[in-house]
Design brief:
This protein is α+β, with helices and mostly antiparallel strands. The chain is built from 13 helices and 18 strands. Helix 3 packs antiparallel against helix 4.
């Protein structure tokens, strides 16, 4: 969340930021935050004044007094105690309201991020590779996978519900190859690697910026447990150091996490959601970084470069877009999306396969993660995240870009050592 005083001192800029993000100013109500912050400040002052009066009363009670004076001080002490109780309760209530109101306020936007409402207003900043020209009619990944017996959506739906699926045969090895390729790339760049829990407490999700419950929630809540299935290892890696003070000398901390990811995808529909592009469960290797404020901008570029390295290595055409204000998640200060070419989408279009965000100190404030600076003061770290591989979407792009006229699919050379084969061929041709 943003610092309360920052919101008060920069109210006009904060309100403009909410509008630029295409958010409802009634729900992200900066005026309410300032109003509650002022009330809290007033109550804290009153609390301190009462504490002073209580101390003075207690000090007076220690002196030699006649009975009437002592009775007077005892009565005054009771009255102060009652006033303190009232103020303490009011302050506790205001603290809860203020925290809730402030959590609805999004992070500020990087000054270079494009202003816009829809993802169509994202700004292309780089293009890598040239989309393949097919000398046959290319198929989409669902048709390819069904013909090669790699995916079974029908039985996934029968057993688990819509948007679940079975991976089969060579696709099992292709998934594991993508994971190994991503993990080895991160290891080369000095990341400490984890396999993270699939469950996190609701307070951790709230700290990261996910809404654990309600119609707009994108996560599966576990009833009566106060926990949720994680939608990304960003949640578990971000919660790893919650409530801690980190050693500045060890920053930045570069973490890579493999996890299952579970998403309700509430409201998601349409032709671009078919197949592996938008599902309820998938595997992902996520990057997460804790840094000082001075390091975070450079590290954000580093995460993007790693994503580009991974997809360049896979030989997939892609472009990078600077995400516009209206398409940014609330915690993100700036976000780049890497979109791979997908031939099966409307005859060929780019589709998102990774993203990387600099969340500055927004998540750290909510999760209370600090470091001790050289001046001896505790300050909030900056947090960053980025997708190394979202396996389903990477597999989708590989199947569509590497398909052949005879129905086979060539495996990108970097994955062959992990797969153990260089081509997936129709069963009838084996």
């Amino acid at each position: 969340m943003l610092d309360y005083k920052f919101i008060k001192d920069n109210l006009a800029a904060v309100k403009k930021n909410i509008i630029d993000r295409n958010m409802d100013p009634e729900r992200a109500n900066a005026d309410k935050v300032v109003e509650l912050y002022d009330k809290r400040t007033s109550l804290v002052t009153k609390q301190q004044e009462l504490q002073t009066k209580r101390n003075e009363n207690a000090k007076a009670m220690k002196q030699k007094l006649d009975d009437s004076k002592r009775a007077e001080l005892i009565e005054a002490g009771k009255k102060i105690k009652e006033e303190v109780a009232v103020v303490d309760k009011e302050l506790a209530d205001i603290e809860v309201q203020l925290d809730e109101a402030a959590r609805a306020i999004p992070n500020m936007i990087h000054p270079e991020a494009p202003i816009g409402k829809l993802d169509t207003e994202n700004l292309e900043v780089k293009k890598v590779g040239t989309p393949r020209k097919f000398d046959f009619e290319p198929k989409d990944h669902v048709q390819i996978a069904e013909e090669l017996d790699l995916l079974d959506f029908d039985r996934g739906t029968k057993v688990s519900g819509p948007k679940f699926y079975y991976l089969k045969n060579e696709a099992v090895f292709l998934e594991q190859a993508l994971i190994q390729y991503a993990l080895n790339t991160l290891r080369k760049h000095g990341f400490e690697l984890f396999i993270t829990p699939d469950v996190a407490r609701e307070e951790i999700l709230k700290g990261i910026g996910f809404n654990p419950r309600g119609n707009e929630s994108n996560v599966y809540a576990i009833e009566e447990e106060g926990t949720c299935l994680v939608a990304t290892a960003e949640i578990t890696l971000g919660g790893y150091h919650s409530g801690e003070i980190l050693d500045k000398a060890k920053l930045p901390l570069l973490y890579g996490g493999l996890s299952h990811c579970f998403r309700r995808e509430a409201g998601a529909a349409g032709q671009f959601s078919k197949g592996l592009y938008r599902v309820h469960q998938f595997d992902k290797v996520e990057m997460f970084v804790y840094s000082t404020p001075e390091q975070s901008d450079e590290l954000h570029h580093k995460l993007r470069e790693i994503e580009e390295e991974i997809f360049t290595g896979l030989g997939l055409p892609f472009h990078v877009v600077d995400t516009c204000s209206g398409d940014l998640g609330a915690p993100a200060y700036r976000k780049w999306d890497l979109e791979a070419w997908m031939p099966g989408r409307n005859g060929g279009e780019y589709g998102e396969v990774t993203s990387t965000s600099n969340c500055t100190d927004y998540q750290a404030r909510r999760l209370n993660i600090k470091y001790k600076d050289d001046d001896g003061k505790n300050k909030y770290v900056h947090t960053l995240n980025g997708t190394a591989i979202a396996v389903g979407r990477a597999m989708l792009a590989i199947l569509e870009n590497y398909q052949n006229a005879d129905g086979s699919v060539t495996i990108p050379p970097v994955l062959v050592p992990f797969c153990g084969f260089d081509k997936i061929v129709p069963k009838s041709k084996k």
